[in-house]
Amino acid sequence: MAGRTTLPAAGARGIAFEVLRRVEEGGAYASRALDAALGAAGALDPREAGLATELVYGTLRRALALDAALAPHSRRPLAELDPAARVALRLGAYQLLVLGTPAHAAVGETVALAKAVDHGRAAGYVNAVLRALSRAPRFPDPPALDADPAGHVAAAEALPRWVAEEWVAWLGAGEALALARAMNAPAPLCVRTPDREALLGRARAAGLTAAPAPRAPGGVVLAGASVAELARAAGDVPFQVQDEAAQLVTLLAAGDLAGRPARVLDACAAPGGKAFHLAELLGPGAEVVAIELHPRKADELAREAARRGLAAVRVVCADAAKPIPGLEPGSFDAVLVDAPCAGLGTLRRHPELKLRRAPGDLPRMAALQRQIARNAARYARPGAPVTYSICSLSRAEGPEVVEALLAEGFRRAPPPAGFPADVLDARGDLLTLPSRHGTDGFYAARLVRDAPSTD
């Protein structure tokens, strides 16, 4: 940003402020920006790194509630403030309202951060608002759950009202509240490995708290561990970071093809987790054709497949919503459509999406999802499974897309033998919720079409 002064990341608050500015002003993903900032900080005390992480994720998770608490003390709507001032106010309010930081530290250090980035004039305003909040440090009371379910869920768990309305209408008030609460809890590290016992043994020997994922046979869940710590412990045991719900999607798509020389299409493949998982599941002579729209991502995907020694993965840079050059319709034994989506199932990991998504995103995404699914399904042979998947939680992107496909000649296919029943809804579709299953929120449906497509 022109004229921007970069704050040296000298401590937890400085790191958090800089990361939150990158998220607010530059559209960065919090996880990537925080990893980069912590890496650039060098030898940082683990307590400072932990505080920086708490400040970044906590401020983003509670941003809407923090705004509501700040609003009575601000003469101007927070949305109209300079982004750096808005970030500073949220950061200071989180310390006051959630962490219980003494007012002199929360206010004084936050004001100093605003001053240090050439926002001296705004610093006075930040000081006045935070001092007023410190004299009455409280969040507004949410409306009663029975009187206004969506309003209660939104206010109590800092969720956009329109998302709360969607979840209440789809899942019911109690489940929606539990889901929103779970989305505000940190997500554990979950990985996939071809040698689970070896990875568990090495992780535990290194003092890490590791357990088998309850449903995915290659999954390992680690509490309070970082990827770097696991990598040091794992040695030569390979693993890939992947939530258990994402692993279940691949298992749903692969079905009874495991160990066979099948040909599978992954229509929206980057960053590659599911394509690589498919390649590991299939037998010698198999092929996984991984489609990626963006050339840079396609190149990265191909390089990572080569690094992992997955010769079965062939990357094609193409638009999965249109006919794919070089592919013969009806030539694949299975198709996976892990479609672009609003990401509402990943708010534990990407809380900034609460501030970026809007109601109009859902019908826009659904239109693209239907287009991709219809086109990709052309490449499945008659009777081959077409698995539609999203890491989002909305009816428009999930069940309604599937209903549109059913109206066009598809039918639901049963899940593979032995697939865990507790993640299947009443229609047999996969639905994972952090509040129920401890995973990210995914929706997936396994479909087939018996006649060749005439699209």
Count of alpha/pi helices = 19
How many beta strands in the DSSP annotation?
A: 12
Low-confidence stretches: 1-9
Class inferred from helices and paired strands: alpha/beta
Largest sheet: 8 strands, mixed
Taking the alpha carbons of the first and last residues, their distance comes to: 46 Å
Report mean pLDDT, rounded to a whole number. 94
The geometry reads as globular
Helix content: 40-55%
The proportion of residues in beta strands is: 5-15%
Radius of gyration over C-alpha positions, nearest whole angstrom: 23 Å
Walkthrough of the structure:
The chain is α/β, with parallel strands linked by helices and 455 residues long. It is built from 19 helices and 12 strands. The strands form 2 sheets. Strands 5, 6, 7, 8, 9, 10, 11 and 12 form an 8-stranded mixed sheet that branches. The chain has a 4-stranded antiparallel sheet with strand order 2-3-1-4, covered by helices on one side. A hairpin with a 6-residue loop joins β2 (209-212) and β3. The longest helix is centred in the first third of the chain and has 17 residues, at 83-99. Mean pLDDT is 94; it is low at 1-9.
